[in-house]
Amino acid sequence: MANAIDNLQGALLRATANRPKVGGFPYFAETMRQAGVTRNSWYLPSCQSLFITESGSVTVVGKPLVTGMVAVPPFNREALIAALRTDQAGEGSFEEFLEASWDAGVVRYEVDFSARVVRYFGCSDEMYEEAYSRVEV
């Protein structure tokens, strides 16, 4: 399991160090794919991330967006797309993207690095799917 953690840490460092400001997610995703990461699931608002890799599965727990008992915002496809476009334009931080996604009613999202697709889910089975481009790293 230590190999999976070491491999993931190295890939995360490479991806964040070399990620371009505009259109950075496809670069990040390709770096993950080349490191043997097949899927990544994010759980909002806890900011827990699960990476499924060829070497084993690794979870990362970040700083929660909220604490205690809170109402889940309704799923808002247009607000989610606006958050995605802001992130894709290189405007704002990853934390701001997560907050905007939560505000748009996203409770989790899943990245399939092989299919190059991200699926965003609300708590009542709402879903928005977006493909991303293949890039060279």
Q: Can you offer a commentary on this structure?
A:
The chain has 137 residues and is an alpha+beta fold. The chain contains four helices and six strands; from the N terminus they run H-H-E-E-E-H-H-E-E-E. A six-stranded antiparallel sheet has the order 3-2-1-4-5-6. The protein is globular, with a radius of gyration of 15 Å. Helix content is 36%, strand content 25%.
How are the SSEs placed, and which strands pair?
Blueprint: H1 2-18, H2 24-34, E1 37-43, E2 48-53, E3 56-61, H3 77-88, H4 94-103, E4 108-112, E5 117-121, E6 127-131
Antiparallel strand pairs: 1-2, 1-4, 2-3, 4-5, 5-6
Tell how many strands the DSSP assignment holds: 6
- Largest sheet geometry: 6 strands, antiparallel
- Look up the CATH topology: YdfO-like fold
The DSSP helix count reads 4
- Gyration radius (Cα, Å) is 15 Å
Q: How much helix is in the residues?
A: 25-40%
Strand content: 15-25%
Distance between the termini: 26 Å
CATH homologous superfamily (4th level) name: YdfO-like
Architecture, CATH level 2? Answer: 2-Layer Sandwich
The multimeric state of the shown protein is single chain
**CATH class value:** Alpha Beta
| Class per helix and strand makeup | alpha+beta
Mean pLDDT: 94
Shape: globular
Q: What is the domain total for the residues?
A: 1
The helix-strand sequence is HHEEEHHEEE
Poorly predicted runs are: none
